[in-house]
Write a structure and sequence with these properties.
- This protein is of the alpha+beta class.
- It folds into 2 domains: about 5-105, Homeodomain-like (Arc Repressor Mutant, subunit A), CATH 1.10.10.60; about 115-250, Immunoglobulin-like, CATH 2.60.40.1120.
- Helix content is about 30%, strand content about 25%.
- It is built from 8 helices and 13 strands.
- The protein has helices at about 5-15, 25-30, 35-45, 50-70, 75-80, 85-95, 105-110, 125-130; strands spanning about 110-115, 120, 140-150, 160-165, 175-180, 185-195, 195-205, 210, 215-220, 225, 230-240, 240, 250.
- Helix 1 packs across helix 3 (about 35-45) and helix 1 (about 5-15) packs across helix 4 (about 50-70).
Amino acid sequence: MEVREAVRQAVATIHRRFSEPITLTDIAAEVFVSPFHLSRVFSQETGVPPGRYLTAVRMFEAKKRLLTSSMTVCDIVYSVGYNSVGTFTSRFTRAVGMSPRQYRQPEVERLLVAASGELNRMPALGELMAPTRRPPSAHRPTGTLNGVVELPRHAPGTTLLIGVYHEHVPQQAPVVHMALPADTRTHFSLTGVPYGSWTVMAIAMRAGIAENRENVFLCSSPNRISVSPGSTSWTRLPMRRLSPTDAPIAVTLADTSLRSLPAHTYEADRFPALVGS
């Protein structure tokens, strides 16, 4: 089987069976490749291993249900593949920066940025540009990140959100972000970026809800960008249309006092153990 087709089928399997206690072996069996080979090519094509992708899908589905349904938190937990409310709540809170109950605040949905096959949403430019409070960084030294975003085509009214994130598939608000009207080539300068190694992501679409995936563009830096105290780093972000194999993204810029430290690895990311626990 051709590599991209195998990954595409594996992604489809994850989206279809995320509520089950699925393993890497289960997914590999459906696409007729070895678990080792699937893990390697999946990471190459999507930027994350299958377990991390599955976690992203489950978190996205949980967020969507919290915002759009009247389901109880308990029911949502079981519907997205976990069998322990306490375990899920701990993972969700650490990854997202707020508890599942806090996620149901109206401000969370109002400032939601989402890019996926079925839910694409961007707040108005004025809302994205409004200052947001973040927890103090203990006077951590900062640097500047400059760069250019390149769109394959420019649609009038397109809003561009550029953010610095802990993770390749972010679950919580960017550490630093800026929003501006998009053009074919858009230069940006992010100041106050804490020193360290970061994923830089740009998402572009018209404000509101984009019904068509063709109108959603994104780019995530393939390698983490290092920022040093008092220095200026640079990156180029060539945007592309949202792909069916992209991991779903939903982050809110809503303020909260519970922004968490990054959780780089979850138990659920480790195949082939059961990941529904």
